[in-house]
Amino acid sequence: MTNLLKRRTFLKGLGTTLSLPLLDIMQPQPGILSAATTAGKPPVRTAFIFFPNGVIGPSWFPTSAGADYEMPQSLKPLADLKSDINVISGLAQINARALGDGPGDHARCASVYLTSVHPTKTSGADIKAGISVDQVAAQQVGHKTRLPSLELGLTRGRNAGQCDSGYSCAYSSNVSWRSPSTPTSKEIVPKLAFERLFGGGAEREKERARHLKDRQSILDLVKHDADQLKKQLGKNDKRKIDEYFTSVREIEQRIERSTQHEKIKPPEMRLPDGIPTELQEHARLMYDILLLAFQTDSTRIATFMVGNAGSNRTYPMVGVNSGHHALSHHRNDEKKIADIQKIDEYLISQFGYFLKRLKATPEGNSNLLDNSMICYGSAIGDGNRHTHHDLPIILAGKGGGTIKTGFHHQVKTETPLANLYLSMLDRMGTDVTAFGDSTGRLSIIDS
């Protein structure tokens, strides 16, 4: 009888540890273990994705509730995934409102998105928000994986100085907060994010760097372990390992190409080292790294900031050459509204790329998307009016079979977004009875 591998099996090499995806050999076989055994059940992964500046509501929200809704224009890139997602309208982040503090809606939008706590208005060192939902989960269940959580982004931020009407830049640059006064910094360089997942200890970093400089792949460093492992595997598992290794190798090559491409650019462009010049390549690299993090069970909790709060990035790839934030104050100008809608749809298309890759990754008797909860949204609804109700929220994935998908849910106006987070925390295995300004759980998603 073939011996089962432990779920937390790694391949090791010089300064490198490579986690493995879920293989058949890691799962209980019929007749070998009790039906009540859960050792082979895939874990639930959770990611919270943030985008700035709100949306154009009429192009984002479906006009009818239930399963038979028509996909609106901005969500058209998710048409093939309709049965795998829930669109939720009516949710609010009340603590993102001024509540007597005046302007600063963008800073509050980011800092409140995952904390549901009104931040202290300050541009000094006395910042105070709340512990974010991802870090609540990381503190309770993060010990089950090598990394308690993973924080990614596309734009560098800073935690000092003023960025929005008297609010510290820390509020605009972070959605993950380890404590009320400590934001969890995100990684925006694909190579560094990749090495955080698969790199070794600091004591071997110099030696490992020399090998990487010689263009030795991480897969080369763990080749001996990999060869020994393959001797134990059946045909299906060998296929899974080969597909996984191909994904790892491809990301390494893409990072290398991006880095080399930047090196030949004119010096006066002052490009950040290691960051792809094209937004789509950058975004997809980070999404792919997030997929690998979940596939290998390196972490089960992640955040991803598509842009910092109030981002004024341009999107020439879809014909939008004006800044995102500036356009969001459209004052009902039809051209500006059309441009914002193009941005909304473009960002959704990148999100759709990630979801499709999750769905195409088999795991156990299902796939990685089925075993995940991916929350995509913002704490600003209408960027023109700086509203913090009727937020644009999508919840993708079935949460390991605990979430019924394929619906547009219209919840009661002013329902706290924290109610959704409380329901997600349950599925992450935490013991939490309340979160932020929650008033209960969002039972509409229950399977």
What is the radius of gyration? Answer: 22 Å
What structural class do you assign from the helix and strand content?
alpha/beta
Number of strands: 15
Say what the CATH topology of the largest domain is: Alkaline Phosphatase, subunit A
Largest beta-sheet details:
7 strands, mixed
Give the CATH level 1 class of the largest domain.
Alpha Beta
Helix content: 25-40%
Averaged pLDDT, please? 86
- Domain unit count: 2
Order of helices and strands: EEEHEHHEEEHEEHHHHHHEHHEEEEEH
Q: Uncertain runs with pLDDT below 50, 5 residues or more?
A: 28-38, 200-204, 261-272
Distance between the termini: 37 Å
| Overall geometry | globular
Number of separate helices: 13
Per CATH, which architecture of the largest domain?
3-Layer(aba) Sandwich
Largest sheet: spatial strand order: 5-10-3-13-14-4-15
Roughly what fraction of the amino acids lie in strands?
5-15%
Organism: Gimesia benthica
Pfam families: HXXSHH
Protein name: DUF1552 domain-containing protein
